[in-house]
Amino acid sequence: MDALQENITRAFVGAVRTADSADEGAGLVQYLTSAYKGARRETGEPYLSYVSDMALRLSDYCVDRASLLAAMTWGLIEIDREMAKEIGERFGDEVQDLALRMVQLSEIDSKTSQDAEQEKFRRLILALARDIRVVFLRLLDRAHVLSRLEDYPPTQPRIMARTARDIYAPLANRLGIGRLRSELEDISLRVLEPATYSDIRRKVRERSNHHEMNVERIKMKIMQRMDEQGIRSVIKSRIKSINSIYKKMQVQKIKFEEVYDVIGMRIVLDSERIQDCYAALGIVHSLWKPIPHRFKDFIAVPKENGYQSIHTSVIGPTGSPLEIQIRSKWMDEIAEMGLAAHWRYKENGSGRFVDGEKFSWMRKVMTYLTEDPSPSDMVEIFKVDMFPSEVYVFTPRGDVKSLPAGSTAIDFAFAIHTEVGFRCKHVRINNRLVPLRTRLNNGDIIEIITSRNSHPHANWLKHVRTSSARNKIRSYLREEAREAMIRSGMEELRKQVKRHRIPMKELFESDEFLEVVQRSGFSSPEDLFAAIGFNEYSVQNVINRLIAIRAALTQKQEAPLEREVFRGAEHVRVAAGIEVPTRFARCCEPLPGDKIVGYITHGRGITIHAADCRSLRKLEKNRVIPVAWESGDRPHYPERIQFESFNTPALMADITRVLVEFGAVIQSQKLEMLDRKGSSVRGVLMVDTQSVVDMDQMIEKLRTIPAMKKIARHQPRTRR
């Protein structure tokens, strides 16, 4: 009771803002307590608990008195329709009308007819046109319901989560209500992809804990510089929503560790002067170097839902990318509350939203409805304006299917069922026969005609948009073409074996060829042949492995069991007991720890090559002899390291610190800029190190430098 009274009174005072609003709020609490006494929702939740939560949610938004009262009382009409008259008499016709519309929107959720989805869209459209406040209250209602999904039967949460993800969250985004959109999307992801949600949430917490102190230092530095320039502001750190991170990982095909804007800064200026936002941007860029192509100006070009802000990314003081948003206080309210920050009503209390410049798409919907369109046309115009990145089409039975914009009838067929996709022959769109490659438009009614004799064709891949359809088509084509590709791959390999003068007799049944198959990662020769036929595996790789295995067998057969050895000039033991000068080949530059062989040259002693050096294939096989590294102390050996990184002031200092730790020094270095602004560099270092083991450990440590993008031991061309 105390929480209910506190939440309702707080919301009522915020909405009414009159001298006696607190007393009126207390009277409302008494009325609701009496009217809802003992009443529970279908899930068993007390109605008063629902009312209390809705009041708490509404207190964060700029709602009016009628919206607040409708949210508090529509449940009474849901319980007993006769209560509508009492609500009208007690609170006025406007509250009664809003409450009745909330009941109408709620009723459609309990229907299971074939056209339930169409009806849901139709009622949402009508609610938008007649009184957009109803849609806003509906979104808050859905957020509350999703927060209590554990109260529903096991089959319901996934259905409700999909509806919230596909309809209500995009609607909240179109209305600019970022806070509600994030809540609906995150809860939907938690229900539909629980493992993914938990994993990302855990990683976000770990990263925020790790960067907490750095974030505070950055905030203080920005605040100090802003104060010096006389710009008053509030600086907040913000964490990207779980669903936004997930979508970014999916779209860009990256791992969580590659999402750099999980934690960012938001500078909210007290001033409403746009020039102050750009002045703040200049301050940020004077502190840290901006990252090219990561700047967006939504102040000069606002989003369609009214969102305005400047987004920039810089290389922070730790060398890691940092996203910073800059906006005025009013812009921040728009970003969080969207439409709710724009409430303007006509004097007759119609509740229509009249700020047409920022929400012109809404005015188009309202204008279109005056022409009395058919239900299917209403759905089409609604979808085109509300969800421009997707198309919503219908089956002949009226079921709604959502597909990415640009999808074709082939995508639709596979969305129905895999077998429908495999057997589709013709398609009717809006009762007209059209090619399967025809792109779909919002509101289309699609009928797929199948045939047992039909099957996917390779050119279908040019006309599909969805990855699911593409993968299924490729899988089918792969299976059908496998036999032909096995024959093609075998023939291609035969040609290459003959060209390299490798003995062909019973080659494919030999143990050495089976070893090549195994080393290449295939379970059978047929799999290898098929991969070659599909151009998924290089014939040259097979030839290289075959030559290496045959050479090793030949060398093993010819090598004596025991021979005297001597210390070569470069700490290498050379077989055959002949003391001759030794030197390292420049083509492969072997390092202690690498597998090596010796090559007897004409008059220049023995040249030491890496065992996998490509140059050996061009040399005489009978001149190759076994060698090994001498045990004991080893001198330092030069080695090249190649890397790409962000160009930060501390880059070379960080690299030198790691090299000193491993007892290595830089002999020479070469750096080049990768872009005109010099934000990224590519470098090659010549480093003195002691062994290949040290090198691997050192590179792993260098990889942890914050500015580092990628780094590896430089492989000479002949060893690739």
Provide the low-confidence segments as ranges.
Answer: 344-358, 557-570
Protein structure class? alpha+beta
> Going across the major beta sheet, what is the strand order?
11-12-16-14-15-13
CA-based gyration radius: 35 Å
Strand content: 15-25%
N→C terminal distance = 74 Å
Helix content: 40-55%
Number of helices: 24
Mean pLDDT: 77
Overall, the morphology is flat
Report the strand count. 20
- What summary fits the major beta sheet? 6 strands, mixed
Structural write-up:
The chain has 720 residues and is an alpha+beta fold. Helices cover 48% and strands 16% of the residues. About 4% of the residues have low confidence.
How would you summarize this macromolecular structure in one to three sentences?
The protein is an alpha+beta fold and 720 residues long. The protein contains 24 helices and 20 strands.
Topology (SSEs and partners):
Blueprint lengths: L1 H15 L4 H15 L11 H12 L6 H15 L3 H9 L1 H15 L8 H15 L1 H15 L9 H19 L3 H15 L1 H35 L4 E7 L2 H11 L10 E7 L4 H14 L8 E2 L12 E6 L5 E8 H9 L22 H10 L5 H12 L3 E5 L5 E5 L4 H8 L1 H6 E6 L2 E3 L11 E5 L16 H33 L11 H9 L5 H9 L5 H20 L7 E2 L4 E3 L7 E3 L11 E5 L5 E5 L13 E6 L7 E10 L4 H11 L3 E9 L6 E10 L2 H11 L5 E6 L7
List descriptors.
48% helix, 5-stranded mixed sheet, 24 helices, alpha+beta, 720 residues
